[in-house]
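Try it yourself: sequence plus NAP, in.
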Amino acid sequence: MAQIIDGKAIAAGLYEQMAAEVEKYAEQHGRRPGLYVIIVGEDPASLVYVRNKEIAAKKVGMVSEVIRMPESTTQEELLEVIARLNADDTVDGILVQLPVPRQIDKDAVIAAVAPEKDVDGFFGMKSGFTMKKGYVAPCTPRACIHLIKTTGTEIEGKHALVIGRGELVGKPVATLLLNENATVTIAHSRTRNLKEIALTADIIIAAVGKAHLVTGDMVKPGAVVIDVGINRNEEGKLCGDVDFATASERAGFITPVPGGVGPMTIAMLIRNTLDCYLARVNKR
Ligand code: NAP
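Structure, out:
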C-alpha cells in the first residue's frame, strides 16, 4: 500500500518556515516582501483564487494587495498598471490572474511583467526546454518536484513519465525533471502504448484532466505517482487523473486529490515571491 504524500501538511510546514524567514529578512532588509495580484473582471472562481493568494501571502507576513480592474479594461490600461508595479521597488511579485478578457492579449501581458518579479514563472518557461535565466519556476510544476523530493526519492537517473504536454503543467514539469537529471518521457493524447510506457516509469506525473486515466495496472510497483489533474467523478466528487484506489495498491508514494498538488501550488507562489524578494534585496 502506497504512502500518501500529504500536500496539505507539507504546505503547512512550508508556510511556517516561510513566516520565520519573512520575519528574519524584514528585520535584515528593512521591508517585507510584497505580492501584488491583478484581476481583470468578475469571474467568481478567479476572485476566490486571488483572495486565497492574498490570504496566503499575509499569513506569512508579506505585504499583499489585490488590484481589481473592470471587465472593460483595455490592454493599454493593464500594461500601465504592470509598468507601475515593475517600477515600484517595494513590489517583489506581480501576478496577473488568468484568464483575462478577450480584448487583452494574454501573452503580451505575461511578457510585460519584469522577469525578476514574475512569480507565476510562466514567461521563463515559454521557450521550450530551457528555463530563462533570472526567472523562478512556475508554481504547480515546482510543487510537483517538491512533493517528489519529500518522499526521499532521488530523481536523478530515474525514468519519469509526464502524461500531458500542456503549457501550464506538462511541458514545464518535464523541463524541471530534465534539470533534475531524470530521463523524461512525455505522453499525450496521441501516445499509443501508454500502459507499457507507464509500467517502466519510476515517477509518474499525470497532468491531463481525465478522471481514472491512470489505473493501478499501469503503475510499476513502488513508483512515485503525482496527480495534478482536477476533475469531477461520476458522483460529482473532486478527483484527479489517477484512479487512487487501484494505483495506491501498487505505488510507493501517491498524492491524493484533493489534498495533494493543489494546496502546494499556492505555497509555491509564496515561495516564488520570497525567492524574488531575496534575489532583489541581495542584488543591492
Ligand atoms: P491542458 O493544457 O489541456 O493539457 C492537457 C494535456 O493532456 C494535453 O497535452 C493532452 O494531449 C493530454 N491528454 C488528453 N487526453 C489524453 C489521454 N487520453 N492520454 C494522454 N494524454 C492526454 O491542461 P493543463 O492546463 O496542463 O491541466 C491539466 C490538468 O491539471 C487539468 O485537470 C487541470 O485542472 C489541472 N491543474 C491542476 C493544478 C493544481 O494546482 N492542482 C494546476 C494547473 C492545472 P494533446 O496535447 O495531444 O491534446
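One thing you can check immediately is this: The pocket of NAP is lined by residues 140, 163-166, 168-170, 187-191, 207-210, 213, 228-231, 261-262, 265 (CB under 6 Å).
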